[in-house]
Amino acid sequence: MIKKALIMLCFGTLVYSNTLTLPWTKNIEQNTQSIETAWEKNVTFLKFLELNRIPMELYWNQSVTDQELCAEITAGIKYQTLKNDKDEILQVLIPISDEMQIHLNKDINGHFVFDIIPIVYELINETIAVTVTSIPSINIVEHTGNSSLANSLIRTFNNTVNFRGMKKGDHIAITYKHKVRMGKYFGYAHITSAMVEVNGQKNYMIRNTEDDKFYNEKGHSLTNYFFKVPLRYKRISSRFTNKRWHPVLKRYRAHLGVDYAAPRGRVIKASADGKIVSRGRKGGYGKTIEIKHKYGYKTLYAHMNKYKGGLRRGSYVKQGTIIGYVGSTGLSSGPHLHFGLYKNGRAINPLKVVKVATTRLKGKAFKAFKELSKRNKNTLNDAIGNPSVPSRLEPFEDLMSSTIKS
What we know:
This protein is of the alpha+beta class. Strand 6 and strand 7 (112-118) form a beta hairpin. It has helices at residues 45-51, 57-60, 64-70, 136-144, 147-157, 363-385; strands spanning 5-8, 14-17, 32-38, 78-84, 89-95, 100-106, 112-118, 122-131, 171-181, 184-198, 201-207, 214-215, 235-238, 241-246, 251-255, 258-261, 267-269, 274-281, 287-292, 297-307, 316-317, 322-326, 336-343, 346-348.
């Protein structure tokens, strides 16, 4: 019988091998199987440990930061489990973002060890061109097999381009990056530039490398949407880190948000207009509210002392509406607001976005952008004249298909 095992390397990728020698088995080979499962709705990390008879002390013994990261697990996300022939769990990999994942692993004594490790992926960079024959999004999927790319284009430029006005024979060209994990698309397509032709009129959209916002070829902003700091605070007690190696702890650390230290009871306001999609306890984040905004954005407000009365899941709020009050519920060393910002399901640094967007580039900024725009326009136009065969891969999972847990 061929023994098939899953080896976990230190850098977090998964590799299959015919045999696996496990340290706690004293070089005795075991039959193992790897299982890929979708994380169930309303299952917290603690509930997962309980269901799989893994000691819950594994969670409680972690730092507050790591306990908070466990609340980042979203329903629908695909995770991998390695089991032996006795159906015992040996290892588990649970993504918490498109950069980091939780790793549970039995040590030499048969005890589970918790760690946060990077997700290893390849990054493809392509420019594709599509001739419109019916519905633009369908044409993109038919040509590339990449529904994430089609969704990203429509979601990003829905208020900029009249897609309904496109005619047969119009063209779409997109330059984008996409992560590939285990031979499948992972996360979301990251568009760097695009051209959408509407009834013969070309519309260019270029992502500016300086502020990560889209502008047209004349330097006018196409993303005037902005967020405001949700409260008056004393200081920033912890900043956003996506993936950082800690030289002392010899571990990767992550903090997917910004912590604003403020007195207990201080009002918290909605950072932008949106719809409340979650109101309730969320693991280590304690009392939490999550608001869905335009253009694929979502904000998270955690460790609240209490919610503003009258608000519930499904409520619409305007920017500046009081939604709750500062507290220290969940895992918190003192009163503060943990503020998270997500773009298409991916945690991003709020401090780079929470400010008024530039409406038009000027001076040196426009001069630099003009050169960038010229290069991108040439690339997009070349793709239309000389179309290439795009990569066609299956999606690893859809982060945005998740349902937020309370």
